[in-house]
Amino acid sequence: MAFVLAGGRGSRLHELTDTRVKPAVYFGGKTRIIDFALSNALNSGIRKISVATQYKAHSLIRHLQRGWTFFRAERNEFLDILPASQRVDEGMWYRGTADAVAQNIDIIDSYDIDYIVILAGDHVYKMDYEVMIAQHAESGADVTVGCLTVDRSEASAFGCMAVDGQDRVTSFLEKPKDPPGLPEDPDKSLVSMGIYVFTWSFLRERLIEDMASDTSSHDFGKDLIPEIVAKGTAQAHRFEDSCVRSPAGTPAYWRDVGTLDAFWKANINLTEFAPELDLWDRDWPIWTYSELAPPAKFIHDEADRRGTAVSSLVTGGCIVSGTEIRESLLFTMCHTNSYSSLNRVVALPYVYVARHARLKNVVINRGVHIPEGLVVGEDPVEDAKWFRVTDNGVTLITQRMLDRREAEK
């Protein structure tokens, strides 16, 4: 089975996670971030999936109920939602990633499984978990850890692993100042993806021991994995061995879209001629809840009032009315009006852009009404008075920010 951890707030996305948990944040025009982990599991042949939720979970649960209810119990397949519900103690929510699994031991026991894949629900990537599970079964390791290969200079921000020539993990270091290099390339390091494969009987015993510990933070990366590395056997699984590439030979794609800059960049990169993330791959589809919507419509064809979109993704239900759109991504049911321009804009569903607006390098939250004549992205000092502007010049616009601006002007 796959156990997806989807309770993290994602505070570095700021106002984008004010009303939704990070895995429920929109991505790529039609999907949510969690759809990638779930689709990977489904495409890998895993038909038993549980999703643990906690922080502001309504948007996520609603998405799962609307888009992921096609499993059939009579075929012994399912997607279960496991909210933090004080099942162990009236004052105890999920205390960490390991505790989220431990509090549901009785439910997992009822699934009658041999192997469990622990997944983070907040990363964007395509991976065949079957390859990793097969490696785990063949190696006989206590745990197999999914790993990214990164430049050693960047590895200090992650949990890093030192490995021997057979990729057995010899030490696990949390955000080390001097990350260990690879045996074959000292300038590269292996970092944890937060993906683990266990035999359920082994993990079950470790979780019970961890729950009884007063000194543990009840986290896989901080507690369980380092202890298994020290006392047992841990095997590294390199992402490049199981990542789904389309076409073959393209770079292995994995993104943590946990900051505004990273979120904006990953979405805008989809507008490139040949994006690294292929959402058009029918052999490895990204499943999601697809809202019923009419086709996108482009209207007006005058010299300064032409509905156009160049190098952009425009989703169903959008109306581009006399607006010039470039290198932008419009989610479902966005409506833009005449004499406006959008350049490198990520507009979440149901955004409305009035006339004569000029927006550049912007993320617009769901349901925002952009007023007539608003200019954002040309004067960062002025923008910062009303909106959230990152160090890299990306501006986040929410309705509350616009309401405050209107009230004070």
From TrEMBL:
It catalyses: alpha-D-glucose 1-phosphate + ATP + H(+) = ADP-alpha-D-glucose + diphosphate. GO terms for biological process: glycogen biosynthetic process. Residues 294-397 form the Glucose-1-phosphate adenylyltransferase/Bifunctional protein GlmU-like C-terminal hexapeptide domain. SUPFAM superfamilies: Nucleotide-diphospho-sugar transferases, Trimeric LpxA-like enzymes. Pathway: Glycan biosynthesis; glycogen biosynthesis. Alpha-D-glucose 1-phosphate binds at Y94, G159, E174, K175, S192. GO terms for molecular function: ATP binding; glucose-1-phosphate adenylyltransferase activity. Keywords: ATP-binding, Carbohydrate metabolism, Glycogen biosynthesis, Glycogen metabolism, Nucleotide-binding, Nucleotidyltransferase, Transferase. CDD domains: ADP_Glucose_PP, LbH_G1P_AT_C. Residues 2-271 form the Nucleotidyl transferase domain. Its EC number is 2.7.7.27. The record marks Q54, W93 as: Could play a key role in the communication between the regulatory and the substrate sites. Homotetramer. PANTHER family: GLUCOSE-1-PHOSPHATE ADENYLYLTRANSFERASE, GLUCOSE-1-PHOSPHATE ADENYLYLTRANSFERASE-RELATED. HAMAP family: GlgC. Involved in the biosynthesis of ADP-glucose, a building block required for the elongation reactions to produce glycogen. Catalyzes the reaction between ATP and alpha-D-glucose 1-phosphate (G1P) to produce pyrophosphate and ADP-Glc. Belongs to the bacterial/plant glucose-1-phosphate adenylyltransferase family. This is Glucose-1-phosphate adenylyltransferase. It comes from Salipiger pallidus.
